[in-house]
Amino acid sequence: MTDLNAAVLVEGVHKHYGEVRALDGADLRVERGSVVGLLGPNGAGKTTLVRVLTTLLVPDSGRAIVEGYDVVEDADALRHVIGLAGQSAAVDDYLTGRENLELVARLYHLPKTEARRRADALLERFDLVEAGHRQARTYSGGMRRRLDLAASIIAEPPVLFLDEPTTGLDPRSRLALWDVIRGLVAEGTTVLLTTQYLDEADALADRITVIDRGKVLAEGTADELKQQTAQAVLSVQVETPDQLAAAAAVLGRLDAQDPQVEEAARRVSVGTTRGSAVIALAVRELEAAGVVIDDIGLHQPTLDDVFLALTGRAADEADTIEGAA
Amino acid sequence: MARRNLLRMSRRFDYIVFLAIQPVMFILLFNYVFGGAITTSAENYIDFLIPGVMVQTVMFTAMNTGTGLAEDLNQGMIDRYRSLPMSRAAVVAGRIVADLTTIVLVVAVMLLVGFAVGFRLHGNLLESVSVPVMTVVAAIPFLWISATLGVWIRNVETMQSAGFLWLFPLTFISSAFVPVESMHSVVQGFAEQNPVTIAVNAVRGLALGIPDSSDIVKTLIWTSGLTAVFSIAAVNRYRRM
Ligand SMILES: Nc1ncnc2c1ncn2[C@@H]1O[C@H](COP(=O)(O)OP(=O)(O)OP(=O)(O)O)[C@@H](O)[C@H]1O
Ligand SMILES: [Mg+2]
In this complex, is the C-beta atom of B8 within 8 Å of any C-beta atom belonging to chain A? Predict the structure, then answer.
């Protein structure tokens, strides 16, 4: 292995289900101790990739390595170093929270007393102490998620896979879970998490990989992605419609880009890479051209814009498109 | 794994009670309702009936394995287990060990109820001890068949109907409740060849103190054969999920 820093390395992995290319030559790299967010619309192949990396699915072709272990050849050894919290919570309804945790710990071959000690610590950490002696079927969705996540880290695996960990959680539980994940990362855990929430990727991930239709579309830090794929947008509202043409001419010269004109809103907008200094420049040039400005603003791109630019559809839309396909 | 399953079963009090009540009802119903109308080789119908009910009951009880697995194996659960450094056979095997334990309990309950309503073992000590042992042996292949169905179907409702349906003809067209000779000729041929008949006859012979070694040997052969085939089928299927 030449690549000693990568905790997860995926090269050209394919997994097809008949016609559906769930993974179509996916590449991924997760540095040890970092958090990578895997972002993509429904059906993008996120879960499929996680399942390949956790030895649940054998890829058709390509190579995937976790902590130096090949997912196919060293599957048994690999399972010792990973934790998985899947898309649907793996909680045994008829066992108590504590028993669920102890069971998983025992299945990781931890001794009994150690299993008990860690179950206690995790119940504490995930705010489940009181619920710990109750059967899991009495838990709320958020409690089940927390218990599931607790189970996935009970053996303190160096690499953790979280498939949409905060789906179905209320905002408070989400933030609490983010804190837990940050805590794990601070302790040195490598985390690969999939999510459909762009703010979640923004908040948690060091680097983000955007995938759709089984292919990686972009990779980078949130800021890099924003710069690469979506620009800041400068928009100007003019006083009277007859000034629109003059304003468009000025803005078009700024970055040599085609401005968009919205007649009804008396607005002209244009992409720019110049940063916030562009506002002062635009004001000067527009005044020189005799344009009276009602309003001017620079809109920084969000991950939503990145998502839209990359997948050609907004994150919220993805659902309906997938459903129609 | 087995401990987990036992623990979880003990939580489901209704399940246990139901498991025990059903065979008790069978014993009482058949003995007091049909008993008078059925003439058998055994002097008392109850001596004829109990081995039959025991074998039939353990086969039905075994079907819970598949339902239980189907219930357990929602995708989240399978993923968790399969991502853990544990034997891939452990989930299925653990369930089977747990169900085998409940089957032993059910057999004990049936024997006790049987004794209470007049059932007696007529053989020597070895033959008498062999009665429950042979009954449990007859259940083992059904545990694996059920497990195979469970991991294939993976749907609790389907398991509850499809998983059980075929057992009715198999156990009723056998010597479990009435002598084969008394049956209509259409089903008699089947009943004679039915492995359930052979197992029931083996257990019954032991209970009456007139063991038939050919029945016993045949039972051991078909049970181990089916167990081998279906244990491989179940575990293989689970591995590839
Ligand atoms: N077992 C399967 N059989 C057939 N097709 C499958 C199977 N599993 C996944 N797929 C298909 O592969 C594609 C990728 O699915 P995957 O579950 O990886 O998406 P995802 O990114 O996790 O989506 P979501 O955000 O909805 O969880 C989808 O089109 C899906 O229909
Ligand atoms: Mg998914």
Answer: yes
Q: Which residues of B touch A154 (CB under 8 A)?
A: none
What are the residue ranges of helices labelled H in B12-119?
A: 13-29, 45-62, 64-72, 75-83, 90-116
**Residue A39, class by beta-carbon neighbours within 10 Å (0-12 exposed, 13-18 middle, 19+ buried)?**
buried
Q: Which residue has the higher pLDDT, A276 or A117?
A: A117
A204 membership: H or E segment, kind and range: helix A198-204
Residues from chain B that touch A51, judged by Cβ atoms under 8 A, are 79
Report the gap between the CA of B147 and the closest CA in chain A (Å). Answer: 19
Instruction: List, in sequence order, every residue forming a beta bridge with A299; answer none if it has no partner.
Output: A233
Q: Is A195 in the pocket of ligand 1 (CB under 6 A)?
A: no
Distance A30 CA to ligand 2 centre (A): 19
For chain A, counts of helices (H) and of strands (E): 12, 14
Instruction: Please work out whether the CB of residue A42 comes within 6 Å of at least one atom of ligand 1.
Output: yes
Distance, in Å, from the CA atom of A71 to the CA atom of A49, rounded to the nearest integer, reads 11
Contact B121, B207 (CB under 8 A): yes
Classify burial at B187, counting beta carbons within 10 Å of its beta carbon; exposed 0-12, middle 13-18, buried 19 or more.
middle
**With a 6 A CB cut-off, is A20 part of the ligand 1 pocket?**
yes
Spell out the domain ranges in chain A.
6-91+139-227, 231-300
Local structure of residue A134 (DSSP, 8 states): S
* CATH code linked to domain A231-300: 3.30.70.100
ipTM over 0.90: no
Distance B93 CA to ligand 2 centre (A): 30
Let me know if domain A6-91+139-227 sits in CATH 3.40.50.300. yes
| Pocket flag, ligand 1, residue A44 (CB < 6 Å) | yes
pLDDT band, residue A324 (cuts 50/70/90) = very low
Chain B closest-CA separation from residue A86 CA (Å):
6
Report residue A22 as tokens: 């769930």
Residues of B in contact with A91 (CB under 8 A): 76
Domain of B128, in residue numbers: 2-240
Task: Report the run of H or E that residue A194 belongs to, with start and end.
Answer: strand A190-195
Which pair of structure tokens corresponds to residue A104?
């998983």
Closest CA–CA distance from residue B80 to any residue of chain A (Å): 6
d(CA A99, CA A87): 21
Q: Are B27 and B113 in contact (CB under 8 A)?
A: yes
Tell me which ligand sits closest to the C-alpha of residue A51. Answer: 1
A58 to chain B: closest CA residue = B240
pLDDT surpasses 70 at A1: no
For residue A46, which atom of ligand 1 is closest to its CA? Answer: 21
Residue pLDDT, tens place only, A195-222: 888 788 888 999 999 998 899 988 998 8
CB-CB: which of B77, B82, B85 is closest to A56?
Answer: B82
**Count of structural domains within chain B:** 1
